[in-house]
């Protein structure tokens, strides 16, 4: 007797999604372990701001925690509150610091504000005066001019004997602005400045390097490193091979069109076909973070000098033709055998076969922006290490 079920199986959303994203959590965990190893004597934190660089805080945070990460950095307090669920006993640092009204979020969820301005420091001191003794971290500016106490003020604070005893930062950090360019002499200037800060705050843990800084050498490691983009398979040092790819973005081909030589493609008719062509009309556009600057032509603001991005299908790199539109992008698949590319197939936008950094460069941007721009339409699939 055969056992049969007369209901049709529900289609797996992933198999029919217009755009889909596969996140390899095993690769993410491997990349973190790799950064731990490269951090030498320092511990490695995990930076998971902006929804883990667009790849999903819940799944990525959990995978990093399970891999052993116990220090995390987020940008804003709400990210810390979310992460606390998945990283119960980790230290969670909030890089943008604390505002009046956020005290209870920080205290209830045991989050560590990174004090990053004179105003925040004054506010923090006023909280301590009320009798709190919650831990904080200090960000000291060594040349970025973004966040951080001014260098001289930080040195003065370190030497200030009148500061309350309950003011006891658990970490002093700074951030390199040119870590991605190892030849820049400005890295050494920031290192020298930070060494002075580190000496002034004797006995307190210190942290200087994000992903790129880790590659600058052991003197840049201090007590704690803060890798972000490298964990997610992005390029941290310009031109250097990234670690394992973590994200694969794909979009579905809606139709294959035959188009005559001399006809034009997409808005503005900025691309005229020089030959009879087969075009794949693909279900992804700038609303999905597939940036308009990736267009094959017709983007006057792009300065880079490249002619647009490529997708990947069945061993072939296929160029974008004309402008990327909100929901649709057109690729030239004339050189791909007809049987290898059909309506319903998926084109890889970036991933193991189409490097994220290369796609980003074609748009005149960086992998960070591509990942954090992924829109809401992606159907996501997470691959767990044991699968
Ligand atoms: C974003 C950020 C990081 C992580 O940087 P990556 O280049 O992604 O490794 C580390 N520290 C600070 C202060 C940051 O803002």
TrEMBL record:
A Pfam entry, by short name: Ala_racemase_C
Gene Ontology BP, a term: D-alanine biosynthetic process
Enzymatic reactions: L-alanine = D-alanine
The protein's annotated pathway: Amino-acid biosynthesis; D-alanine biosynthesis; D-alanine from L-alanine: step 1/1
Residues annotated for substrate binding in this entry: 146, 326
Gene3D superfamilies referenced in this protein's UniProt entry, alphabetically: Alanine racemase, Lyase, Ornithine Decarboxylase, Chain A, domain 1
Residues with PTM N6-(pyridoxal phosphate)lysine: 49
SUPFAM superfamilies (UniProt xref): Alanine racemase C-terminal domain-like, PLP-binding barrel
Keyword Metal-binding: no
Assigned keywords, A-Z: Isomerase, Pyridoxal phosphate
Domain spans labelled Alanine racemase C-terminal: 246-383
Any one GO cellular component localisation term in the record: cytosol
Required cofactor(s): pyridoxal 5'-phosphate
Catalytic residues, chain numbering: 49, 267
GO molecular function: alanine racemase activity; pyridoxal phosphate binding
EC number of the protein: 5.1.1.1
Similarity annotation: Belongs to the alanine racemase family.
Function according to Swiss-Prot or TrEMBL: Catalyzes the interconversion of L-alanine and D-alanine. May also act on other amino acids.
The protein's name in its UniProt record: Alanine racemase
């Amino acid at each position: 007797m055969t056992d049969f079920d007369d209901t049709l199986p529900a289609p797996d959303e992933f198999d029919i999604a217009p755009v889909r994203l596969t996140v390899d959590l095993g690769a993410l965990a491997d990349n973190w372990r790799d950064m731990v190893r490269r951090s030498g004597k320092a511990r490695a934190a995990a930076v998971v701001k902006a929804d883990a660089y667009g790849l999903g805080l819940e799944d990525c945070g959990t995978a990093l925690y399970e891999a052993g990460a116990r220090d995390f950095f987020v940008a804003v307090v709400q990210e810390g509150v979310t992460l606390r669920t998945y990283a119960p006993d980790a230290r969670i640092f909030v890089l943008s610091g604390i505002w009046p009204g956020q005290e209870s979020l920080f205290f209830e969820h045991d989050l560590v504000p990174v004090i990053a301005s004179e105003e925040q420091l004054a506010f923090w001191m006023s909280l301590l005066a009320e009798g709190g003794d919650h831990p904080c971290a200090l960000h000291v500016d060594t040349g970025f001019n973004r966040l951080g106490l001014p260098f001289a003020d930080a040195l003065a604070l370190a030497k200030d004997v009148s500061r309350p005893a309950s003011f006891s930062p658990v970490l002093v950090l700074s951030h390199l602005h040119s870590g991605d360019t190892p030849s820049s002499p400005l890295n050494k200037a920031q290192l020298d400045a930070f060494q002075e800060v580190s000496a002034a705050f004797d006995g307190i843990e210190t942290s200087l390097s994000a992903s790129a800084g880790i590659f600058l050498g052991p003197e840049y490691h201090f007590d704690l490193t803060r890798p972000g983009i490298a964990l997610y398979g992005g390029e941290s040092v310009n031109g250097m091979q990234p670690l394992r790819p973590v994200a694969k973005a794909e979009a579905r081909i809606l139709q294959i069109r035959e188009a005559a030589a001399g006809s034009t493609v997409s808005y503005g008719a900025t691309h005229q076909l020089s030959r009879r062509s087969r075009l794949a009309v693909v279900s992804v556009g700038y609303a999905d973070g597939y940036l308009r600057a990736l267009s094959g032509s017709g983007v006057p603001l792009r300065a880079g000098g490249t002619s647009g991005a490529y997708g990947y299908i069945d061993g072939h790199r296929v160029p974008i033709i004309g402008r990327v539109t909100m929901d649709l992008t057109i690729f030239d698949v004339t050189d791909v055998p007809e049987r290898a590319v059909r309506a319903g197939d998926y084109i890889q936008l970036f991933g193991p076969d189409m490097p994220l950094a290369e796609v980003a460069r074609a748009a005149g941007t960086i992998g960070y922006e591509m990942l954090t721009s992924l829109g809401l339409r992606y159907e996501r699939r997470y691959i767990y290490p044991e699968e």
